[in-house]
Amino acid sequence: MAGTYDILKERGFVEQVSDEENVRAMLESPVTCYIGFDPTSSSFHVGSLVPIMALAHVQRHGHLVLAVMGGGTAMIGDPSGKTELRQLVPKEEIDANAEGLKAQLAHFVDFSPGRARMIDNAEWLRPLNYIEFLRDIGRHFSVNRMLAAESYRMRLETGLNFIEFNYMLLQAYDFLTLYRRYGCTLQMGGNDQGGNILAGADLIRRIEGAQAEALTFPLLTTSTGAKMGKTEKGAVWLDPRRTSPYEYYQFWINTDDRDVGRFLALFTFLPMDEVRELASVTGEDLRRAKEALAYEATKLNHGEEEAAKSREASRALFSGEGDAGGSVPAVAVARARLEEGIPAFVLFSDAGLVKTRGEARRLIAQGGAYVNSRRVEATDEMITSADLKNGALLLRAGKKKYVRVTPS
Fold this sequence. Notes:
The protein has helices at residues 4-11, 20-26, 49-60, 91-105, 122-125, 130-136, 143-148, 150-156, 162-165, 167-182, 194-208, 245-253, 260-267, 272-279, 286-302, 304-319, 335-340, 344-350, 357-365, and strands spanning 16-17, 32-37, 64-69, 116-120, 186-190, 213-217, 230-231, 234-235, 330-333, 342-343, 369-371, 374-375, 382-383, 393-397, 401-407. By secondary structure, the chain is an alpha/beta fold. The strands form 4 sheets. A 6-stranded mixed beta sheet has the order 1-6-5-2-3-4, sandwiched between helices.
């Protein structure tokens, strides 16, 4: 049977590792590992799922996992991957954000006693005495080595703020504190965190004389080169109030054909034999693979019931038969306007399917606008209450964007 490290590697989670043989051997027996999450937003987005899923996989193979909320580090702002200073978030907002993120993590990780711990580094970072911290921790850091780290080096061209320069020390101190309190010997995180994670492992070696290791994940982009989790409408959020379960499902089912196998391995718990089988299909069978990805990913975040509802709504829209119900994004239009009639280009713009009325005109002229599966032939065609079907209008832009319009 494959060990934890080889499973992570097979599924695509491993980008770099401090010492592959040490990490592989370490994960053959139960260990304690951690990933940090800075609460700079009230919700995770899909781009955060790689570390979340990695933590869940490690837990499922018998290890104790620590999910560390960065209530302290978020007050500084991580410079990694940024070309300018992050906006500093007030303490009260950070604490509120952390509560939202904790609830979302619980969909993926079992926080039962002995299985996982949720910890906030504000507990030990906010009360720090700066002079003592510099004396006890800062003396172990070489400024030359810090400036060579990728996260700092890329910022030197645009300007590195001193407050950000402290971030590596604080993250390293997190690792040391977790080692002392919980025996944590492995930190995982995005590849942009590599320098910070290695700094923590080195700090543990210098102060405690102990071995600690680092594992980083790839920073994902889609095959089209887009940043993972970004769409034309913006980020795809795990919070159902910001991205509905149906929209979440649609994000996954619209995955580029080239990414289906990779995403099935990363974002579901399906066995790899099944992942490989689904990844091998072509042609019309790809719809089955994408449906498996969308269903499993939505089930993890929103539960089985919402995943099933979203799947049925998606099938109804894809086939052009049945009613997608309330799963599709909806907007209300005054009944009086509909009875009078609304020009198609105005309706598509007002419904949010396009950004401008000019864009709506182009969409219709190119044959990409539909009302209840019927193509709109003219930009100024009047859409009225006579077009209502099952009490609503189903508007479609192109192949994938739907909005349900209901009279109010």
